[in-house]
Design goal:
The protein is of the alpha+beta class and 159 residues long. The chain has one domain: Gcn5-related N-acetyltransferase (GNAT) (Aminopeptidase, 3-Layer(aba) Sandwich). Helices cover 33% and strands 23% of the residues. The chain contains 4 helices and 5 strands, in the order E-H-H-E-E-E-H-E-H. The chain has a 5-stranded mixed β-sheet, sandwiched between helices. It is globular, with a radius of gyration of 15 Å.
Length: 159
């Protein structure tokens, strides 16, 4: 993982975040178009706007992995309050993890997750929760290697 810097995202990163977030949307939609939101024609601007809005929230953080001057990945995490619906107490939640395809398998995702987990620990949450698409076994393997365990299975039925 030579010359990779992990840092908090800034508004300047929004276009790169939007492109990667849009790819995340497209990936999930391709996996299950009935379950996941249709990204539409150009989701980049919307996703950039969404993530830019997270940058100033004290209970959310977006970290980027930068190589040279290029953002090659990001992680978006936040603090979630107690949820009776989910039967869990206050927790950290990793919402997004994206690494550009040509930068994968070099430790970038692990470094991003480590940054998110360390930040969540400073928020005094007792645990970190995340979701992974059922078909995304590579992500599940990464998360298990980082100490995550399976606790819930989402099931969907179309009406």
């Amino acid at each position: 993982m030579a010359d990779i810097t992990i840092r908090r995202a800034t508004a300047v990163d929004a276009p790169a975040l939007g492109r990667m977030g849009a790819e995340l949307m497209r990936l999930h939609f391709a996996l299950d178009p009935q379950r996941f939101l249709d990204p539409g024609e150009q989701p980049e601007a919307g996703y950039a706007r969404f993530l830019r809005g997270r940058l100033t929230d004290a209970e959310e953080a977006v970290f980027v992995a930068e190589q040279g001057r290029q953002v090659i990945g990001y992680v978006y995490a936040g603090v979630e309050p107690l949820s009776w619906k989910e039967l869990r107490g206050r927790a950290g939640f990793v919402h997004d993890l994206v690494v550009l395809e040509d930068a994968r398998r070099g430790g970038v995702a692990t470094a991003l997750m480590t940054a998110a987990i360390e930040w969540l620990a400073t928020q005094k949450v007792p645990r970190v929760v995340l979701w992974a698409a059922h078909q995304n076994t590579a992500a599940q393997t990464l998360f298990e290697r980082l100490g995550f365990r399976r606790t819930m299975v989402e099931m969907t039925r179309e009406l």
